[in-house]
Amino acid sequence: MFFGRLPEEDNVVGACSLEKRSESGLYAITYLTHPDFEGRRVATTLAAHAVNFAKKKPNITTLNAAVKEGSVDERVVQRLGFLYDWDVVDGGRRTNMYQLDTSK
């Protein structure tokens, strides 16, 4: 798990984690930002650190992210190079699944 602090803050402003999903090297990336610090690229920065960490680990071959269609989270994973893979519709809400090959 990665935690984020801004230089002018004493408290954690965000967190990011990688969770193993399979023995084949698939990990899920999740992140959150404290509401007071949204819009300051905290999530993007934390997720970028997690992606860089994953790329250095040979046992992590793929990252996936589940994000709401049209959300800020979708833009975060797109900026980091994740590619759309498939979607799920549940209760009228669409969740898009993105993947990133970390072996490249």
How do the strands and helices of this protein lay out in sequence?
Blueprint: E1 2-4, E2 14-20, E3 26-33, H1 42-55, E4 62-68, H2 72-79, E5 83-90, E6 93-101
Parallel strand pairs: 3-4
Antiparallel strand pairs: 1-2, 2-3, 4-6, 5-6
Helix-strand category:
alpha+beta
Enter the CATH topology name. Aminopeptidase
Q: Which percent range fits the helix content?
A: 10-25%
Q: How many E-type strands? A: 6
- Biggest sheet, spatial arrangement of strands: 1-2-3-4-6-5
Structure overview:
This protein is of the alpha+beta class and 104 residues long. It has one domain (2-101): Gcn5-related N-acetyltransferase (GNAT) (Aminopeptidase). The chain has helices at 42-55, 72-79, and strands at 2-4, 14-20, 26-33, 62-68, 83-90, 93-101. Strands 1-2-3-4-6-5 form a six-stranded mixed beta sheet, covered by helices on one side. Strand 2 (14-20) and strand 3 (26-33) form a beta hairpin. The longest helix is centred in the middle third of the chain and has 14 residues, at 42-55. The protein is globular and about 40 Å long. The protein starts with a strand and ends with a strand. The model has no long low-confidence stretch (mean pLDDT 93).
Condensed summary:
The chain is an alpha+beta fold.
What keywords describe this structure?
104 residues; alpha+beta; Aminopeptidase; six-stranded mixed sheet; 21% helix; globular
